[in-house]
Amino acid sequence: MTQQVLAERFEQDAGPIAPRAHGTDWKIEAKRVAKIYPKPGSRSTKDATAVLDGFDLQIKSGEFLSLLGPSGCGKSTFLNILAGLETHNGGAVLVDGKRVEGVNKNVGVVFQGYALFPWLTAQKNVEVGLKIRGVPKAERRARAAKVLKTVGLEAAANRLPHQLSGGMRQRVAIARVLAYEPDILVFDEPFAALDAQTREFLQGELLRIWESGDTKKTILFVTHSIDEAIFLSDRIAVMTRAPGKVKTLFDIELPRPRDSDSRNSEEFAHIRSRVARVLEEEVHIGNDDH
Ligand SMILES: Nc1ncnc2c1ncn2[C@@H]1O[C@H](COP(=O)(O)OP(=O)(O)OP(=O)(O)O)[C@@H](O)[C@H]1O
């Protein structure tokens, strides 16, 4: 399909943005979002790949929602569109009822790589982002110290990244984003590179941090791990293969606070098998295409 044909198809927009009905509290709304990329390696604008098509999702304020889906279904693409780091070709993404246009400072992004400056201490790595945002020096110091304490790293504030474990580095990366005080946090497979034990520890830490705030932040978490998604989330959205859209939403009604008993519960195993079935269907259909 040519890029133009795809673009025309996606012109069927999200429709007018109606005022929100009384009582609804969507922090994030994605309406019929579409994204096309030129084919990798192709210089021709005629070749295009639809990555997202008809992607609909609503997330409540203070909700923890995980996105699961086959590789390449557009999870990171949606996350980047929400953060304003990537454009889209159709539909609309709204935060607090307003269209996302350009980089959204209300969205903090934590990626898999820690992206820390190796020559700066943990404290300075957190401060540097605030400096770029024009926060005065004394406030930078205070905010960095506070968020390092929140992530349990106050004793490591003066260490350089190479003096920290992988898990500690990822906590510095989380602290750096928390320091901006965004309403929304998005995570793109943040724990994928860590060993299983550290990963489970950080999942618990992330819930502790999320639950300890005065106001719970809204979290969108991209992962490949069904167990991680269940342990963390209020809801899981499973996507179709590309062009991706939300296929099934699961409510995760495990009681909070969650701990290792939650992971070993019958309810957890039951949800895992339901989510796995839906996800496997998509992966199998994708494989049958080849
Ligand atoms: N800048 C880009 N230019 C061209 N194609 C891209 C670009 N970014 C992503 N893509 C393609 O879009 C598709 C979706 O990518 P995306 O990273 O959003 O998927 P994903 O679901 O996060 O995948 P994974 O689970 O493997 O990380 C992939 O086929 C990818 O190659």
Automatic annotation (TrEMBL):
CDD domains: ABC_NrtD_SsuB_transporters. Keywords: ATP-binding, Nucleotide-binding, Transport. Transmembrane segments: none annotated. It comes from the Bacteria. GO terms for molecular function: ATP binding; ATP hydrolysis activity. Residues 28-266 form the ABC transporter domain. This is NitT/TauT family transport system ATP-binding protein.
